[in-house]
Amino acid sequence: MSAPPTYVAVVDDDQSVCLSFARLLRAAGIQPITYSSAEAFLADTKRPKFDCMVFDVQLGGMSGIELAKTLAAAGGPRPPVIYITAHDDPESRASAEASGCAAYFRKN
């Protein structure tokens, strides 16, 4: 009997970041599902139970931090959240850490 697939959500408005993450995750045997916005993630009524989520801090609409807070407020299981950002600042980092993130990375 094989193990169920591991699903990771990647939410980033930079398509090249989504593609890079997807390739890396697939190479590791992980099933990525990418979204170009927080709103697209929330609108996906068929999304699987994610084992981990990677959110860009600054998105075009709702931020990745706001998305995590929205999911937390909805209740239910909370998979680890990893934040990535090209615009690192103390306020964003503090908000991310306060939301209980598993990691916070600056992308260059």
What can you see in these coordinates?
The chain has four helices and five strands. With 108 residues, it is α/β, with parallel strands linked by helices. It has a five-stranded parallel beta sheet, sandwiched between helices.
Topology overview:
Elements: E1 7-11, H1 15-27, E2 31-35, H2 38-43, E3 52-56, H3 64-74, E4 81-85, H4 90-98, E5 103-106
Share of residues in strands: 15-25%
User: Could you state the order of secondary-structure elements as H and E?
Assistant: EHEHEHEHE
Structural class: alpha/beta
Mean pLDDT over all positions: 93
Cα Rg: 13 Å
Walk across the major sheet and give the strand order: 2-1-3-4-5
Q: Please report the distance between the alpha carbons of the first and last residues.
A: 41 Å
Query: What shape does the CA trace take?
Result: globular
Low-confidence stretches: none
Quickly count the helices.
4
Q: What can be said about the biggest beta sheet?
A: 5 strands, parallel
Query: How much helix is in the residues?
Result: 25-40%
Q: What is the tally of beta strands?
A: 5
